[in-house]
Amino acid sequence: xxDPMTSSPASPKTDLRRADINPDFxxxxxxxxxxxxxxxxxxxxxxxxxxxxxxxxxxVFALEDRCAHRQVPLSLGKVSGEAVQCCYHGWAYGRSxxxxxxxxxxxxxxxxxxxxxxxxxxxxxxxxxxxxxSKAESVPLPPLAQVDNPAFKTRHFSxxxxxxxxxxxxxxxxxxxxxxxxRQMGQIKARFLGQDAGENFIEARYSFARTGNQQPLAERxxxxxxxxxxxxxxxxxxxxxxxxxxxxxxxKIHDKDGDLIMELFSVYVPNTADGMSTQTFGLLSVLRPxxxxxxxxxxxxxxxFTHRIFEEDREIMELEQNAWRELGGDxxxxxxxxxxxxxxxLAANGAxxxxxxxxxxxxxxxxxxxxxxx
Length: 374
Fold this sequence. Notes:
Helix content: 10-25%
GO molecular function, one term: 2 iron, 2 sulfur cluster binding
Distance between the termini: 64 Å
CATH architecture of the largest domain: Alpha-Beta Complex
Strand content: 25-35%
Oligomer: single chain
Region (Disordered): 353-374
Organism: Gluconobacter roseus NBRC 3990
Domain Rieske: 26-128
Protein name: Rieske domain-containing protein
CATH topology of the largest domain: Naphthalene 1,2-dioxygenase Alpha Subunit, Chain A, domain 1
CATH superfamily of the largest domain: Naphthalene 1,2-dioxygenase Alpha Subunit, Chain A, domain 1
């Protein structure tokens, strides 16, 4: 019998890196600022290409990014009124996904259309519900850090990481990897304080002890200077909580008085058919200092600092993915209990590999009863 402390919970039959993300949630596919009026852009949710369309008037809508005629991406088309026209022959589709015009046919001979996806905007992001559309109204959008709170300043980030989305959940949840960031963070050690768990979430709490006297400038400007005694370990008084509420992840930092001073929201969206590349959408909210305009002065330094940290994470996660590929599966030996529970949570809530769990929209792609010959 394998030792439970040295074996991974993912068996060969349930390799975590082969599990698809569950589509029955709201996922951002683009930033609102990137889609102008009268334009369309193409994005992917795993195997599914999706066109986001912002008409001259009205809200954004989302369609399958394939014209029903020759399968050309609709995201290359022209927005005309409340519809998008395919760039090839000008077939037009409205927000319902139905074909509403073929320029060289009579109105009575229009073919059926393409799939449509529920679509919303919030927090400066365009969200799509890729799964069973009948569930969209009952599934809430996730809490988006403090993006609407004027007491906080929020920055956006959206790097692509060439790995399965589960690696990103594990990376953030396991604060024991601070050794990786020693050049950016100085010498600190994570101390695990406890956890909470439920059917669809798991949370870990940490504090940090600084074992050296190097404190990064960005950290000092945001949290204040920590007066270190070089003769002994000094605790960092902030408490860090990391929570995966499937499929989203958050990180919150509270000060010694229990006040929230920083919050991170992240969601990881597979952007290739094989699921081995992930588009990250993140919101990082920082409490504004009492000194006016200080946050604006330190904002560039914070951006550089967080970018360097993430680049170190990106490199290591892509190395993990490369090892998985070379070894032909998941050979990780996980001993940290909180990560073992996280892996179980991700496996339990994910979709079986290759399962088409997206429900068909009202509009079918089947040929009409009177086929159109073109």
